[in-house]
């Protein structure tokens, strides 16, 4: 078994408050069984298969964006998960583009089943960025979590999962917070460091937050 084959490290299960998805974001794929052992089983299966790079296929309109252009693509807050239920935690998604070309699968896990959240451009505002004319499943690059950590009437961004295995967390009263790696392999090695990537996240309903 090679550690680089465990790129499924990103198949974490983010367990948040019990909730349903708002009506405007109910575009979900086919249900598949999911249990506490599913992530471990999927990682075990992937470790026994040849490595396949993640899907980085994007039209030039998105792959060739500058940093400033990418920042104009915004997830619409009205589509944030659990906003309609007035729960303290909310989830927003990142569009693919610029450096963030890897397709990251986002799943809803509920009642022992997982369903893929289906991409729709209606979830985003694009500023001056022109999308390709074809109705294409462009997918997501990651997500961020919001919670009122500083004042009760505003949900601050407190955790971001975007790019390779990078994530950033923000505490009360902080501006940027702290960046870290979900998985680091061969850091400082003369042969070069390996860079695993997050590939899939499951957003699950429980009254606690944890990452499996």
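^ Assign residues to that structure.
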């Amino acid at each position: 078994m090679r550690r680089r084959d465990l790129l499924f490290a990103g198949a974490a299960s983010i367990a948040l408050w019990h909730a349903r998805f708002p009506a405007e974001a109910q575009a979900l794929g086919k249900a598949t069984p999911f249990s506490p052992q599913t992530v471990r089983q999927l990682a075990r299966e992937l470790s026994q298969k040849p490595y396949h790079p993640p899907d980085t296929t994007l039209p030039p309109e998105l792959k060739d964006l500058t940093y400033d252009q990418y920042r104009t693509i915004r997830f619409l807050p009205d589509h944030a998960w659990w906003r309609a239920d007035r729960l303290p935690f909310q989830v927003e998604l990142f569009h693919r583009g610029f450096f963030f070309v890897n397709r990251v699968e986002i799943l809803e896990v509920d009642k022992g089943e997982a369903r893929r959240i289906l991409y729709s451009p209606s979830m985003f505002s694009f500023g001056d960025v022109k999308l390709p004319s074809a109705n294409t499943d462009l997918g997501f690059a990651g997500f961020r979590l919001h919670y009122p950590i500083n004042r009760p009437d505003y949900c601050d961004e407190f955790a971001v999962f975007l790019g390779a295995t990078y994530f950033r967390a923000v505490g009360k009263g902080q501006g940027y917070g702290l960046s870290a790696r979900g998985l680091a392999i061969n850091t400082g090695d003369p042969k070069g460091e390996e860079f695993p990537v997050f590939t899939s996240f499951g957003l699950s309903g429980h009254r606690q937050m944890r990452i499996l």
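The chain has one domain: 3-205.
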